[in-house]
Design a protein that fits this description.
Layout lengths: L12 H10 L3 H8 L8 H13 L3 H7 L9 H11 L4 H14 L6 H12 L3 H8 L5 H13 L3 H15 L3 H14 L4 H14 L4 H13 L3 H14 L4 H13 L4 H14 L4 H28 L1
Helix pairs in contact: 1-2, 1-3, 2-3, 3-4, 4-5, 5-6, 5-7, 6-7, 7-8, 7-9, 8-9, 9-10, 9-11, 10-11, 11-12, 12-13, 13-14, 13-15, 14-15, 15-16
Length: 304
């Protein structure tokens, strides 16, 4: 997370822990850090804590990082608290912003954690303000994600180009290219597929990489291939959020039975009851029921 790109030692624990986190192999990242936990640097520990948060094991972060911690690692405890108590997220963001303003943080942890939490709260513009002007590839990659969520593909492409100028072969630069290609659609989606496939072969398939491939297959109407890839993703993690959503979408597109679609929906509600997708679907369902009720009343009155 250092602010300037330096020559990386590809034999270092930090390199491997960082890269495993980027490709979505969160347990792999943790396993690289654990043997050195007692003497690990703040930056190395940050990838273990980010990975714990990614696999819904934030309680471990809270056990390792106490409230009186004086290092930037405190940011991950704040993130865990925000995920556990969404009603307190604005207060927690305020604490993080205070740290961003006054804390000298060579690891860039405060900035990344604050931006991630803003994204979690759908405040993408605020996240971009935190990350603006940074030449750190992690900050730039996160900015690309924000811009894509805001449907600013044009700006995302520009920023991706700057990442290529810094390090074209870097994992984050390659992933950013894939994200932009997916958002652009059509012929460029195949370019994204090749990037995900290359990482699967170079490292190992993860739900993140496999879902990237599945989205390409779905976008190009290769539904059988998408189903096979998503089935493989389920073997990596049976309750993966993105996999369940993509399976539900694919079931709709291929005319699967309502029972199949309902099964995926029930799993999403069970494992991710407070997620953006589930809450959004529930709100739309409630609005639809309300409109149906109003229409029914109006129809009754008309007939009377």
């Amino acid at each position: 997370m250092s602010k300037t790109l330096q020559e990386e030692d590809t034999n270092s624990t930090l390199f491997y822990a960082r890269n495993e986190y980027y490709i979505g192999n969160f347990l792999g990242s943790v396993n690289f850090v654990l043997p050195e936990q007692g003497t690990a640097s703040t930056e190395l520990l940050s990838y273990m804590y980010l990975s714990y948060l990614a696999i819904d094991s934030g309680r471990l972060v809270a056990s390792y990082v106490k409230e009186n911690n004086e290092t930037p690692l405190l940011a991950f405890r704040y993130m865990h608290e925000a995920f556990e108590q969404p009603e307190k997220i604005e207060d927690i963001l305020s604490k993080l912003m205070d740290k961003v303003a006054i804390d000298e943080d060579e690891t860039n942890i405060w900035h990344i954690a604050t931006a991630i939490l803003y994204c979690y709260n759908n405040q993408f513009e605020n996240a971009l303000k935190i990350l603006h002007g940074s030449n750190n590839l992690e900050s730039m990659a996160l900015s690309v994600q924000c811009l894509l969520r805001m449907n600013r593909i044009d700006l995302a492409k520009q920023l991706m180009g700057k990442m290529q100028e810094i390090s074209d072969d870097h994992t984050l630069t390659q992933l950013a290219q894939a994200w932009v290609a997916l958002s652009t659609g059509t012929e460029q989606m195949q370019d994204a597929f090749h990037i995900f496939q290359e990482f699967c072969e170079k490292y190992k398939p993860t739900p993140l990489l496999l879902n990237g491939q599945a989205v390409v297959h779905i976008g190009l109407e290769r539904y059988e291939e998408a189903d096979a890839v998503l089935r493989e993703a389920l073997t990596k993690k049976h309750n993966d959020y993105d996999t369940l959503i993509n399976l539900m979408v694919l079931a709709h597109l291929t005319g699967k039975s309502s029972e199949t679609i309902t099964r995926y929906w029930d799993q999403l509600q069970q494992f991710f009851p407070k997620s953006e997708f589930v809450l959004g679907m529930e709100n739309k369902s409630a609005e639809f029921d309300k409109l149906c009720s109003q229409y029914s009343v109006q129809e009754t009155l008309t007939q009377a």
